[in-house]
Amino acid sequence: MAQERTGVATLKSNPITLVGPEIKVGDKAPNFTVNKDLMTQVTLADYAGKVKLISVVPSLDTGVCDAQTRRFNEEAASLGENVAVLTISVDLPFAQARWCGAAGIDKVITLSDYKTKSFGEAYGVLIKEIQLDMRSIFVIDANDTVQYVEYLGEMTAHPNYEAAVEAVKKLV
């Protein structure tokens, strides 16, 4: 049974339970397996040697998640080739592709945690009650060491975009 953390996050002020460990700066980034499309799985190793900005959203079809992904897509243009900007949600891969096409998202890589919830459990963001991943940000250096973490206390709140981008810029 995976570790559960209660009392650390809410959804519209209602307490939720997060499954998995709390990741901290300095930790070795846990591996994960997510889907790039319905058949293709990727892991942390697929982005080896790059700085990774991982933006976790519950669903791209909600306002804050939409805004968060659009913002990091804009920021990605100035971060360079050595940075992989990943957005992870539990949305199905074809829903992610549809949303990206409609929104003009072309610099962020969307990955789906729908199949095994591997990312959610490894990074402590799987919401037990609704099986979505909690909004959070992780910046991982080229050696797979966690350099920045933001777990949002309220699922509907925006992350600190500036702090996350600044953490990436310090690594490139």
From TrEMBL:
Domain Thioredoxin: 23-172
EC number(s) reported in the record: 1.11.1.24
SUPFAM superfamilies, alphabetized: Thioredoxin-like
Signal peptide start-end: none
Family: Belongs to the peroxiredoxin family. Tpx subfamily.
Function description: Thiol-specific peroxidase that catalyzes the reduction of hydrogen peroxide and organic hydroperoxides to water and alcohols, respectively. Plays a role in cell protection against oxidative stress by detoxifying peroxides.
PANTHER family xref list: THIOL PEROXIDASE (PTHR43110:SF1)
The name this protein goes by in its record: Thiol peroxidase
Organism of provenance: Paenibacillus qinlingensis
